[in-house]
Request: fold
Amino acid sequence: MITQNSNHANAAAVSAPDYDAIVIGAGFGGIYMLHKLRDELGLSVKGLEKGGGIGGTWYFNRYPGAKSDTEGFVYRYSFDKDLLLEYDWATRYLEQSDILAYLNHVVDRYDLRRDIQLNTEVTGAMFDENTDLWTITIANGEQFTSRYVVNGLGLLARTNIPDIPGLGAFSGNLVHTNAWPDDLDITGKRVGVIGTGSTGTQFIVAAAQMASHLTVFQRSPQYCVPSGNGPVDQAEVEQTKQNFDAIWDQVRNSAVAFGFEESAIEAASVSEEQRNRVFQENWDKGNGFRFMFGTFADIATNPDANAAAAAFIRSKIAEIVKNPETARKLTPTGLYAKRPLCNEGYYETFNRQNVELVSIKENPIEEITPAGVRTADGVEHQLDVLVLATGFDAVDGNYRAMDLRGRGGKHINDHWADGPTSYLGVTKAGFPNMFMILGPNSPFTNLPPSIEAQVEWIGDIIGAAERNDARTVEPTKEAEDGWNATCNEIANMTLFPKVDSWIFGANILGKKRSVMFYMGGLANYRAQLAEVKNDGFRGFEFDKTPEPSFA
Ligand code: FAD
Ligand code: NA7
Reply:
């Protein structure tokens, strides 16, 4: 609803802003946002990116084995049919280098590079209530002003370095997977890895084939299913391209947006034999999200259905892993309710002679020494390279790292003392003209389709503000509270909150556990966005007080 806000500050003469909009981050989100605002809305836009290249996740995560675990045909943009049709793929899953090349292609195709400033970390963003402008401060102290700011900071982009005694003492190469140096070759080296999440499991499979010896320091065992990766021939690529309209229609109207039909059948509605047949079929097809959401409708919500899926995976571990003690350590016992993983031969990797598994729950790491890792049993595991696959301060990590202040100079940390919140995952009360791509309580899906939904909606609301000469647009606190209540309610209907993982911020020491995703699925999310827009942007206030006279 467009309203007059009588509390507006004065209409003093101020300098014209440097840009209409500043977009922070040049990953999937920031790239499309820049294109949308500059080329479709005609705004002057500056992109600021911390990294030395574009690509976000796919610029930084260059560890051996890094790839998408969404199938390649839906791990891409769909907003431009020509772009969709002109870019091929050769494997079922895209390697990091493929995705980085694709994103560079997109940036060049729309001539975006000239408006992206690389090697530029934003350290502060402050809203000035007198001018209704944002002041963006970068690491060298330089400042830019803009009317709008869009944060495409990434939800898995703030590195989590664990606090392990002696970490700084290691004399070999210590590296986090999110900052893998191009010149680090682990071939023939003694490698240790801490962490067995999505990243760690990918790395382990690849590194085992390169390292002379690989020591895996596992805190929690993982449920992992095959990915079914392999080559895709050109005929299949062409056929998929011909079906793109239907494919993207299905993706946008699905829950997890992974390009397969989600099951509508409850696990208990079929016999145990039928259930295991369905699990086996999906195990053979491959893909973690398919196994969790394509087998039965209630794996993520019903403890019995979940237990059946977990038992099936456990039986596979027992079948695959030859050493019973290694199999025992690798076997999870709890709920199957972290982000579902898939890989090419994860459990098989532990049958290799050069791979050793250390369960650090049973035999904790005492300290990192110059030569390697010393565990409680007194063994010093000698290493040339120690890899931290310890994940991310997910979702709000990069927001809190900035000096981000909205109305009244109030810091984002003060707004988010009880955990990060938003309205619709894209806006925040008290932060006028500020938008977020994959902000807190955004959909839990294959992410490019959710990113597209958000970028397009942010474009719509900025377009509405521009057409109505609104100087500011921001959500009400009530609207934000309502959205967060919805997200809490939906998350609590699932089993995910019952397990510690980054999805709820449980992986970071001292971080308050909270709901950080909308788990109602992409179709419902898109419907919510459309409804809010069609209802005159319900829950938003547009401030139309007169413009200051720009000097
Ligand atoms: P990012 O790609 O994270 O980009 C954010 C950018 O913002 C970064 O370049 C960062 O440097 C920049 N930035 C942050 N703060 C600042 C600042 N203060 N100043 C300047 N720049 C800043 N998702 C899937 O859907 N499917 C997958 O298979 C999948 N696989 C993944 C595998 C790995 C190893 C990782 C880490 C993530 C994976 N993801 C996957 C999630 C992935 O992050 C998203 O799919 C997508 O790439 C996010 O794009 P983005 O633009 O939102 O964020
Ligand atoms: P995750 O999924 O958070 O995994 C991190 C792993 O590191 C996990 O196995 C953790 O064990 C382990 N970890 C974290 N801190 C420690 C310490 N202090 N000591 C030992 N082990 C530790 O991050 P990923 O990068 O794998 O994946 C994140 C997302 O990125 C993923 O879902 C994809 O979307 C891409 P834990 O399980 O907490 O016991």
User: Anything to note?
Assistant: The radius of gyration is 24 Å. The chain has two domains: 2-158+393-544, 167-388.
